[in-house]
Write a structure and sequence with these properties.
The complex is a heterodimer of chains A (398) and B (398).
Chain A: H1 19-35, H2 38-45, H3 53-61, H4 81-94, H5 100-113, H6 121-126, E1 131-134, E2 137-138, E3 141-142, E4 149-154, E5 157-168, E6 175-182, E7 185-192, E8 198-203, E9 212-226, H7 231-267, E10 269-270, E11 273-274, H8 279-307, H9 316-342, H10 353-365, H11 370-381
Parallel strand pairs in A: 1-6
Antiparallel strand pairs in A: 2-3, 4-5, 5-9, 6-7, 7-9, 8-9, 10-11
Helix pairs in contact in A: 1-4, 4-7, 5-7, 7-8, 7-9, 7-10, 8-9, 9-10, 9-11
Chain B: H1 3-20, H2 28-37, H3 59-68, H4 74-77, H5 79-92, H6 96-108, E1 113-116, E2 132-136, E3 139-150, E4 157-163, E5 174-180, E6 186-191, E7 200-211, E8 215-216, H7 222-238, H8 247-258, H9 265-291, H10 301-323, H11 349-356, H12 366-377
Parallel strand pairs in B: 1-4
Antiparallel strand pairs in B: 2-3, 3-7, 4-5, 5-8, 6-7
Classes of the chains: A alpha+beta (398), B alpha+beta (398).
Chain lengths: 398, 398
């Protein structure tokens, strides 16, 4: 249990950023302002693939922000998950197009967690290759009984057969990491998408910046990534890291929207005064600020919990569920309020509000909904009271 | 400033105090006096005035050590003293003689403090207050009525805001004083509240005399001085360090665990939502403490006050709905002797429920808190004010 996290004085470092992290944030923000501005996002989201591979490669090689938490000897920056989170927050704020979810949030953490070195990890970090995790999650957790792909041994590896539905970023991915049932149990395999027997059917998604595809494998050649002895641990770790980074993305995007709404409320005049001077508007935005600050605290707490390797009582699963429940609710709320505060213009295709609104409801549904994470939090915390119940007055003299 | 060295300094000082003055054995004033002399009462204060001149964030480090050893929570014993008077006296007293004379007995809790701000005619619009202070040689003669003064009957000193010039706009005609509650012309009467208890008082001030040396800040500068106090009050009310699951959410979880016969899925989800909000706020307090500077609390403290108040109400409303028919009994409305029963001063669940109704009014209404967040943090324009620029004596009152 994550009981006494707050009791260790050194944890006061939890919410502070280093100078390097502040510089990293500024660098990603500047890059996004130039290469992931609104018009680039709009162009990308209606292109095939729905991102600019050149920009993606620059994010990987020039800026080096795709594998910040990957050890140096595996081709990464050798930093921490907090570094990766800082970059993700800015990319989320810009709604930067590219396979962040499939590659950075899930595939890279899975390959880092796997005990065997990977032949594709360095290329994913460089941005010269992208990947998706074709593992169905149940509310953000792995359930081996839901695996729908079978693995059969071949002369020089494995052959996978089966379908995985609604895989984010699979459509343009070069590699798929697939959970499949083999003779020894469920393991993780890598499949190159240009191999025979791999079919991907792109799906129209609500959020055009976060594409999905159904994956159909018929005896597709595959390499073993993680054996049955560790696959569950690896996938669980990837899902937790992914959920924490997703929460940070939600924070970045929500901050962008709140800034947008505040600027609009200051400049939009009705009844001869800025609409932000009306309490009905400013109180809504004040509540959004509270939601955003709560979201930020829980998201970075989850990232920190996953970074902490002191092996003490901290429970990353709880921290991740707290973050997902809080950030999904905050981002959808703020995206909704952004449209309301903007009035008619906020409902147009021309205005950027809808791009974020669609991302908000997409993010909320991915890796477990707020409700599902709330259920998990309830299971983890409601059974263990930390103190005695207060006295109940009985209506009789004491 | 070397943060690591400072942290070591605070840690060493706290361990020394605990070793030399075992809080489980020596009287509370003696222990707190030792803390003051060691600079641990307010670590960011200068040496000799109860501090060590180090970052405010390190207070948590000291408090953990002192309280883990069985030391009291000073803020609970002398809330207005620690939360409000100390920072105001430190910053605005005219001489170090006054500072020294007031701060040490405040720290030991031998001198309890109260706050004389609100009046029957000045609640949210505090700057409209009418209590007058008229100069008379090297002292001031004060007349007026204050209300909602907690601890006035036990207090030795009161923080007083009074009008020294009725001919200028309301914010400009105020001056801040320290009033001797034992002085002639100061009369305290209990004010019974809807719980049946009387935690607050009315204070009638008739020709009471204050030496000019007990003025805090310049004549006419009382509003700015009061803002120091209020910011500290709000961060004290909403921002104290706590452990996961402590405080009122701990009451609700303990009550829940003690009565499995009353569980329903709908109530469980409601409690989980409250738990998550409490945890997000706890993490946000941790975060603002971690990033706090010696500069003192900012408007962000208003988040803690706003959320803490509404959350407390929602938590006890939950407790009442959870208990159903059992919840609508009470201990009776006869005003009990103070701490007669020796139990938790907050009393039964039902009493806590009734008491929580004041949370969104006292220390700044939630409406005012939202204005502060919107205007000072988000930078939204202020509301139109009917009394802008008007001399105080011409403002309609009623």
């Amino acid at each position: 249990m994550a009981e006494e996290l707050a009791d260790r004085p050194e944890n006061s470092a939890e919410f502070t950023f280093t100078d390097e992290q502040t510089q990293l944030r500024a660098a990603v923000r500047a890059f996004c302002a130039e290469y992931a501005d609104e018009s680039s996002v709009r162009t990308s989201m209606e292109s095939d693939p729905p991102f600019d591979p050149g920009v993606w490669a620059r994010l990987g090689s020039e800026l080096g922000v795709l594998g910040l938490a990957v050890p140096e000897d595996e081709g990464g920056a050798g930093g921490t998950l907090v570094d990766q989170a800082v970059a993700v927050e800015e990319l989320g704020a810009a709604l930067a197009c590219g396979p962040l979810f499939g590659t950075v949030y899930l595939a890279i953490p899975a390959l880092v967690a796997a005990s065997e070195p990977s032949d594709i990890l360095a290329q994913l970090v460089e941005g010269t290759r992208t990947a998706a995790l074709a593992v169905g999650d149940v509310a953000g957790e792995f359930d081996p009984t839901t695996v729908t792909v079978d693995a059969a041994p071949t002369e020089n590896g494995w052959a996978l057969s089966g379908n995985v539905l609604r895989v984010v970023d699979a459509g343009a991915a070069d590699s798929l990491l697939v959970a499949a049932k083999g003779p020894g149990g469920t393991a993780i395999y890598a499949v190159d998408t240009d191999s025979p027997g791999v079919q991907r059917i792109p799906l129209h998604t609500l959020d055009l910046t976060r594409p999905q595809a159904n994956v159909e494998l018929s005896a597709a050649p595959a390499r073993l990534v993680s054996g049955a002895d560790e696959a569950e641990r690896v996938i669980t770790q990837a899902l937790h890291v992914g959920a924490a980074l997703l929460a940070v993305e939600q924070v970045g995007a929500a901050q962008h929207l709140l800034d947008l709404s505040v600027e609009y409320a200051k400049s939009r005049l009705q009844f001869g005064r800025p609409i932000g001077s009306f309490q009905a508007v400013k109180h809504r935005l004040a509540d959004d600020l509270v939601a955003l600050e709560h979201a930020r605290s829980t998201a970075y707490h989850a990232v920190w919990a996953l970074t902490d390797d002191t092996g003490d009582a901290l429970d990353p699963a709880l921290a991740v569920s707290i973050a997902q429940a809080t950030c999904s609710a905050a981002f959808t709320r703020i995206a909704t309020d952004t449209i309301q505060v903007h009035g008619g213009i906020g409902f147009t295709w021309e205005h950027q509000a809808h791009l974020y609104y669609k991302r908000a409801f997409t993010d909320a549904a991915l890796l477990g909904s707020a409700e599902q994470h709330r259920t998990r939090v309830a299971e983890l915390v409601l059974g263990i009271p930390g103190k005695d119940a207060p006295r109940i007055a009985t209506g009789t003299p004491r | 400033m070397n943060a690591v060295a400072d942290s070591g300094l605070v840690t060493a000082a706290a361990h020394r105090v605990v070793a030399d003055h075992d809080p489980r054995k020596v009287p509370i004033p003696q222990f707190l006096g030792a803390c003051f002399d060691a600079g641990l009462s307010w670590v960011h204060f200068p040496e000799g005035l109860g501090g060590l001149g180090v970052s405010r964030g390190l207070q948590t480090v000291a408090d953990r050590i002192l309280q883990d050893a069985g030391g009291p929570v000073p803020l609970a014993l002398n809330p207005m003293g620690y939360g409000m008077a100390a920072p105001t006296v430190r910053e605005h007293a005219q001489t170090d003689t006054v500072r020294k004379k007031l701060l040490r007995p405040l720290a030991t809790t031998e001198d309890i403090w109260c706050q004389l701000f609100s009046e029957p005619g000045a609640g949210s619009d505090l700057a409209g207050l009418a209590t007058s202070a008229v100069g008379d040689g090297d002292s001031w003669i004060v007349n007026g009525q204050k209300v909602w003064t907690s601890l006035a009957h036990r207090a030795r000193w009161g923080l007083l805001l009074a009008r020294t010039d009725p001919n200028v706009p309301k914010h400009r005609g105020l001056t801040y004083f320290v009033l001797d509650m034992h002085a002639d012309g100061v009369e305290t009467r209990p004010l019974r509240q809807l719980t049946g208890h009387a935690e607050f008082n009315e204070v009638y001030i008739t020709d009471a005399r204050i030496p000019d040396t007990y003025r805090l800040g310049a004549v006419g500068d009382g509003w700015r001085v009061a803002m120091t106090t209020l910011m500290n009050e709000r961060s004290a009310l909403g921002g104290s360090a706590s452990r996961r699951g402590a405080g009122s959410i701990g009451d609700a979880v303990a009550l829940w665990a003690s009565r499995p016969d009353l569980h329903t899925p709908v109530l469980r989800d409601r409690l989980t939502n409250l738990w998550l909000r409490a945890e997000a706020q706890r993490l946000t307090s941790e975060r603002s403490r971690a990033t706090a500077t010696v500069g003192g609390p900012g408007p962000e403290g208003s988040i803690g006050k706003l959320v803490g108040a509404e959350l407390n109400q929602h938590i006890y409303e939950f407790c009442m709905d959870f208990l159903g028919p059992e919840g609508i009994l009470y201990d009776g409305y006869a005003t009990p002797d103070e701490k007669a029963s020796g139990e938790d001063w907050r009393g039964s669940v039902q009493q806590r429920f009734l008491r929580s109704r004041a949370n969104t009014i006292e220390g700044g209404t939630s409406e005012v808190m939202r204005n502060i967040l919107a205007e000072r943090v988000l930078g939204l324009p202020g509301d139109l004010r009917a009394d802008a620029g008007m001399p105080w004596k011409e403002i309609p009152r009623g």
